[in-house]
Amino acid sequence: MKCWQCEREAEGVCRFCGRGVCKEDAHSMPYIVTIYVGHDQVPKAIAVADVLYCGVCKPQPSPIAMPTLT
User: Looking at CB atoms within 10 Å, which of 7, 33, 46, 67 has the fewest?
Assistant: First the structure.
């Protein structure tokens, strides 16, 4: 697989979009695995730090409504 940005050999895959990415073009950002309601009804998240990110895709900060899927 080739890197999405430079076409060198990819060494990983973006966790958010699946694009191949080499070490030189790779970035990292946190990835939320799940969200739940904790003590006192406070929402909490289980996240993984430093997940591979291509730097090109745009992970959305909040859920997107998809009414056509119902």
Answer: 67
- Return d(Cα 47, Cα 45) in angstroms, integer: 6
Residue 70, pLDDT above cutoff 80 = no
* CA pair distance 58, 18, nearest whole angstrom: 12
d(Cα 70, Cα 62) in Å, to the nearest integer?
19
Given a contact cutoff of 8 angstroms between Cβ atoms, the answer to whether 24 and 8 are in contact is: yes
- DSSP tag of 22: -
pLDDT tens digit string along 21-69? 999 999 999 999 999 998 899 999 999 999 999 999 998 888 888 899 8
Which pair of tokens denotes residue 59?
A: 């992970």
Phi, psi for 47 (deg, rounded to 5): -130, 155
